[in-house]
Amino acid sequence: MSGAIDLASGLGGKIEKKEVRSAVDQYEKYHGHFGGDEEARKANYTDMVNKYYDLSTSFYEFGWGESFHFAHRWKWESLRESIKRHEHFLALQLGLKPGMKVLDVGCGIGGPLREIARFSSTSVTGLNNNDYQISRGKVRTLEFIGLAPEGSQRVSSFLEKAADGLVEGGRCGRPRDRHVWALL
């Protein structure tokens, strides 16, 4: 696990090297395979999710760069070129025009939002619930805009006033998303 501990703490990771093993142990205890139970997992869902992203974000950056998604690749394209092309395609599909405001829900460290903003000359705001990923996004760009206020009513109000479009790349498989999207 030595290499993994180095990576989890070596790219600016939130978790200190000496604390990685403990964070992994705590995360594993939320799952039945490691002796955890469903009630404890549900009661500590926010902590479990944050531990996952605190531990995995450095690996994502190492493997994917700033954008935590894949895209179809042409034979001659690099992974990074295919991802940029896909993000440009998203901007075109949304019909984004200079000066528009866009909300990127679940923005990770902000790779797609920065590329879409560069490509389309729009203002893109990132919305994320993981402090470590937000801090990595801020490190990655001086113009990282930040978060909408907490709370569903405030988020709905924020969207009505601040967004002409919505980008969202990875919500599949999250248990309570129906409630979020019902608000949007």
From TrEMBL:
SUPFAM superfamilies: S-adenosyl-L-methionine-dependent methyltransferases. One of its GO terms (molecular function) is sterol 24-C-methyltransferase activity. Pfam families: Sterol_MT_C (PF08498). GO terms for cellular component: endoplasmic reticulum. The keyword Nucleotide-binding does not apply. Keywords: Lipid biosynthesis, Lipid metabolism, Methyltransferase, S-adenosyl-L-methionine, Steroid biosynthesis, Steroid metabolism, Sterol biosynthesis, Sterol metabolism, Transferase. InterPro entries: Erg6_SMT_methyltransf, MeTrfase_SMT, SAM-dependent_MTases_sf, Sterol_MeTrfase_C. Coiled coil: none annotated. It comes from the Eukaryota. One of its GO terms (biological process) is methylation. Residues 52-138 form the SAM-dependent methyltransferase Erg6/SMT-type domain. Belongs to the class I-like SAM-binding methyltransferase superfamily. Erg6/SMT family. This is Cycloartenol-C-24-methyltransferase 1. It comes from Acorus calamus.
